[in-house]
Amino acid sequence: MLGQRMLGMTGIDWTGHLGYGLAWLSFGIGHSLLAASGVKARLRPRFGAWYRLAYNAVATVHIAVVFGVGWAVLGDAPAFDLPPAATLAFHLSAITGAVLMAIAMRGYDLGRLTGTRQVRADRRGIALAEDEPLRRDGLHRFVRHPIYTGALLFLWGRALDPLGVATALWGTIYLVIGILFEERKLVELYGRAYSDYRARVPMLVPWRGRAL
Q1: How far apart are CA 93 and CA 160, in angstroms?
Q2: pLDDT, tens digit only, all 212 positions of the chain
Q3: 3-class SS at 142?
Q4: Which of 74, 92, 126, 187 is most buried, by CB atoms within 10 Å?
Q5: Whole-prediction pTM value?
């Protein structure tokens, strides 16, 4: 059976999985703390227009460390013995996820998202807000979080070995919890407009309705 093949014959490295899970937990806690309004209020005066860029830089370094821990504790585990059809399905999932993320990212102001645009605006004496208008076009017509939909497809499409499964599992937990917190912030930010949008459009899977 496919499940038996994915478990493999060498058993499960629970110590490695626990270590990797703790690394993901540290990322989730750190990311949440930096995103908290109270922490933002204390750090913004120090970083000014550089806050968003610094926030992303810290998150990038932290997630790189998390992946490094995963590779160190689980990277030498062999790939699962899967049928060719199953392997192809996993690869197609990863490709589809990558394409969806690329398409969804095109709908955002990447300069504002990364923080570089705020820095450029500040040099011209312009205070630029971090938040964009509520997006309900493109892939957002069908799901509220198309980037996360693509990310989940990509993560599980790479679950071809113990490291891939662990990354998909912990990444999924992190994304789902993150979405729940993000939804609360979006309601506070956009008010009734987002509440109406949320009532019509699914979170991740396009199974009903659309925005436009």
Answers
A1: 12
A2: 444 444 444 457 788 899 999 999 999 998 888 877 777 778 777 888 888 888 899 999 999 999 999 999 999 989 999 999 999 999 999 999 999 999 999 888 888 888 888 888 888 888 777 778 888 888 999 999 999 999 999 999 999 999 999 999 999 999 999 899 889 889 988 999 999 999 999 999 987 766 55
A3: coil
A4: 74
A5: 0.85
